[in-house]
Amino acid sequence: MDRERPIGVFDSGVGGLSILRALRAELPQENFVYFSDAGHAPYGEKREDFVTGRSLAIAVDLLEQHRIKALVIACNTATAAAVHLLRARHTHLPVIGVEPALKPAAALTRTGHVAVLATRGTLSSGKFDALLASLRGQADFVLVPCDGLAAAIEDDDTARIRDLCERYTAGIGRFGNGPDEIDTLVLGCTHYPFAGDVFRDLLGPQVQLVETGAPVARHTRRLLQAQDLLNPQGSAHVQWQTSGSAQALHAAAARWLGLGGGRSMDPGSRPG
Ligand code: DGL
């Protein structure tokens, strides 16, 4: 049955687990295949055509090996580079992308000042330009390309994560809820929610952090429902695949989702 096939989810690495966490909460009767392309991470500072190529290859692999019924691109950089091509090539496959949560941030900010942290690839994309243009006049957005931050989170390098979070938030303006202060921080890369505690610690409780997991999960539910593809009997089971270290993915899944330990894992999986 089509409905019982898994949902494919991919990212350059562990960042997409922040989306998978929301998907499992919203859709506990679905099953998932998570592909971490850690062997080619990070995507954010690579050429767009490289990220496009990886995204297309991963989609084909998930379709051929796992017969996925929908694909969630749990990566802002890959969405910007490849969502249009994936939809054009796989016209019958629901493809869900993610984008930095500028619209929710514009609605949430009281001071009108929002900082957007994302990868260089996301911020320099045409897709992001169009998003920003669509919100002109609704808030003041400061854009911060955070080179190295996704890689530090991927490596679980606590000292470097803190150092980079500090560096990228210092000097872009004052944070707080005063008239000219930045009161909203968009975590525009799916890795960054895993540095949420560090940002909260650095910026204080007045600054609200905005991420995309929950809205993306709700959108996925609506899309599946509309196509009569909701699974009545899955169990939020996840099959793990990676082009990088299986141990690292296991550890991240255990840490961030409370999963791991003995679940299926295919470290040498395609696409290599
Ligand atoms: N997690 C990805 C994103 O949302 C990519 C991070 C990276 O590999 O640079 O953009």
How would you portray this structure in words?
This protein is an alpha/beta fold and 272 residues long. The chain folds into two domains: 154 residues, Rossmann fold (3-Layer(aba) Sandwich); 109 residues, Rossmann fold (3-Layer(aba) Sandwich). The chain is 42% helix and 15% strand. The chain is built from eleven helices and ten strands. Strands 4-3-1-2-9-10 form a six-stranded parallel beta sheet, sandwiched between helices. About 3% of the residues have low confidence. D-glutamic acid binds next to helix 3. The site of D-glutamic acid (DGL) has 16 residues, from helix 3.
Relevant terms:
272 residues, alpha/beta, Rossmann fold, 2 domains, six-stranded parallel sheet, 11 helices, 10 strands
Record the SSE blueprint.
Layout (H helix, E strand, L loop, with lengths): L6 E5 L5 H10 L5 E5 L11 H19 L3 E4 L2 H14 L5 E2 L5 H7 L4 E6 L1 H4 L2 H9 L5 E6 L3 H6 L3 H12 L14 E4 L8 H8 L4 E3 L2 H14 L11 E5 L3 H12 L7 E2 L6
Parallel strand pairs: 1-2, 1-3, 2-9, 3-4, 5-6, 5-7, 7-8, 9-10
Helix pairs in contact: 1-10, 2-3, 8-9
The major pleated sheet works out as: 6 strands, parallel
Quote the CATH topology of the largest domain: Rossmann fold
Instruction: List the uncertain runs.
Output: 261-269
Multimer state: single chain
Total of DSSP H or I helical runs spanning 4+ residues: 11
SSE string, helices as H and strands as E: EHEHEHEHEHHEHHEHEHEHE
Strand order of the largest sheet: 4-3-1-2-9-10
Q: Which percent bin holds the helix content?
A: 40-55%
Number of strands: 10
CATH uppermost class of the largest domain: Alpha Beta
Radius of gyration: 18 Å
Structural class: alpha/beta
